[in-house]
Structure formats: structure tokens, C-alpha cells
Amino acid sequence: MEQQPMRGAEPLEQPDAATAQAYLDVLPDVRQRAEGVLDLRRLGRLHIVESIAIALYVGIFFVAWGLHRQSPELPIAPLNALAVFLIWSFLARAVRERYGARRVLRGARAGVYYGLAVAGAALGLALVVIDGVTGAFSWFWLPGPPLLFLAGGLAAGLSLRHEGRNDPSRLAPARAPFTRTARVGTMAVGACLAISVAVSGAAAVPGWGSAVSSFAMFGIMILYLVALLTGWCADLGETWWAPQWIMFGFGASAVMAMVLLVSTRPGIALATGFALGAVVLILAAIVSLLPERDDD
Question: Alpha carbon of 74 to those of 104, 139, 266: distances in Å?
Fold first, then answer.
């Protein structure tokens, strides 16, 4: 059956050679203007902060794992900190777009960054597998994975800042309005962090603790996927200012602290986890209700 052309959608006329060449001539200027909106210094700083946070998480994971290997009777709950990085990965997309780009790592810079990240992940996995198969645990190799992640992020971040060193100083981009949806999203982030803190402490309880902790992490992962697929609060990172980020930083730090506490002082982990979780939840409620801040 012959397809009928759409009404009102006549094909555009093919440009002549001179017009086509004119289009090609302006492409470098268009590309230069597009790259000119990139805030390379702030993007570089973001990569540096991310690399430090990831290195700390990986380091804490291996410290907790090493303590558990030395004393198998001690509980371990390093995967509870996964909630922090799921939330951060959700927020970071909007933060990068606020600075002008979703992704600016290309060429050699991208090769170094992703190469070191893959090397860090491969070394970490190899250490876990070798220890599981041979039982040859050694503290000597444990700094390797976090240092590789740190080196990759620092290389990318410092390179971006160096490239943008001569760019004119720019004011921070205006934030998106802190709407009712953003307030609900902020409260949801705080609740996920609070739950992660509390169930990290619950993981120290013999018997049911580990199952409750795993179930809670599974629930947070489902919420993350729903928000990611539906685009709900996709611009949340653009709406936050200092109080909201302080709440997130406190909650993330509390999760990391609980991972270590479970493997060192399991007797007080449950009560401490619920107390810190309550503090995170209260902070989330406060920063969710703060009035809109006008950017100068």
C-alpha cells in the first residue's frame, strides 16, 4: 500500500552548494559558543569532590571487609552505603547540566579517568576473589582500589580546571525554583538516607538484622529506579542550595560511619543507627520546609 505524504509537511528544498558551504563554515563558531557555556572550573571541582567521596567509600568498604576477615564473628554491612551513591548519581546529573554539560570527558582525559576507574574496580574484585579462594588476606593491597579511583577523578578534575584557568569568572548559575515537588523530593532523599543509616545499625543484630538491612536496601534501589525511569524530580540537584547539601553530606557521612561502627562496635550499632537516622530525618524535614532563596 502506497504511503500518502503528510498534509502540511512538504519536504524542504535541498540547499544549493553555496548555502551548504555557508552552513559548514559557521559550524566551528557554533561549536565554540556551545563549549563556551561550560563552566570547566566548577565541573573540575565536581570531579575532584566525587573522586574523594568514591575513594572514601571504597576505602571504608575494604577496611570493614578486612576487619571482618580478621574477626569473622564481627558483622559487616558495607553495601548499605550503596544508597548514598544511588542518590548522588541521581543528583549529579542535574548539577552537571547546571554547569553547562552532561559529559565533558573526551579523548585522553576520558581514557585516563575511565581506565583508572576500571583498574580500581578490577583490582578490588580480584582482591575479594583471591581472598575468597585462597584465604590469603593482606592489608598491603587494600589501599590500591581507592587510590586508583582517587587518581582517576583527580586527573580529570585538575585537567578540567587547568583547561578553564583562563576562562572569565562566572557567577554560579541560577537555581531552579524550590517547588513543592522539589520539597517532596528532598524529604524523600532524607528519608532514604535516614533508613540507610538505621538499617546499617540493624545489620549488627544477629539473625534478622542482615535480612532487614538487605530488604531496606532493595526497597531504596526500587525507588531509585522508579525516579530514574519516570524522571520524577530529575532537576532536584538544580534546586538545592547550602542547607540541602549539608543535610545530604551529614546523612552520607552518617552512613559511612555506621558501616565502620558495625564492624568495630556492633553492640552499640543498633541504638546509634536509629539515633543518627532520626537526626537525618529531622534535618531533611527542616531543609524541605525552608523558604525559597533568591539568587543574586
Answer: 43, 17, 7
88-121 burial, b if ≥16 CB within 10 A, otherwise e?
bebbbbbbbebbbbeebbeeebeebbeebbebbe
Span 30-45, pLDDT tens digits: 344 444 446 777 777 8
Say which residues have a Cβ less than 8 Å from residue 146's Cβ, sequence separation at least 6.
54, 55, 56, 58, 59, 62, 120
Structure-derived torsion over alpha carbons of residues 219, 224, 225, 231, reported in degrees to the nearest 10: 140
pTM of the model: 0.75
245's torsion region: left (phi>0), alpha (psi -120 to 50) or beta?
alpha
Is the separation of the CB atoms in 45 and 98 below 8 Å?
no
The three three-digit cell numbers of residue 235, written as one number:
532537576
How far is it, in rounded angstroms, from Cα 283 to Cα 279?
Answer: 6
Q: How would DSSP label each residue in 216-240?
A: HHHHHHHHHHHHHHHTTTTTHHHH-
pLDDT score, position 4: 53
Q: What are phi and psi of 163, to 5 degrees?
A: -65, -35
Predicted pLDDT at 36: 44
Block residue for cell numbers 534535618:
283
Q: What percentage of residues in the chain have a pLDDT greater than 90?
A: 16
| Confidence class for position 99, pLDDT limits 50, 70, 90 | low
Of the CA atoms within 13 Å of residue 256, those in its CB half-sphere come to 19
DSSP state of 255: H
Least confident of 3-17, 24-38, 150-164, 252-266: 24-38
> How far is the CA of 160 from the CAs of 30, 40, 89, 156, 212, in angstroms?
21, 5, 20, 6, 43
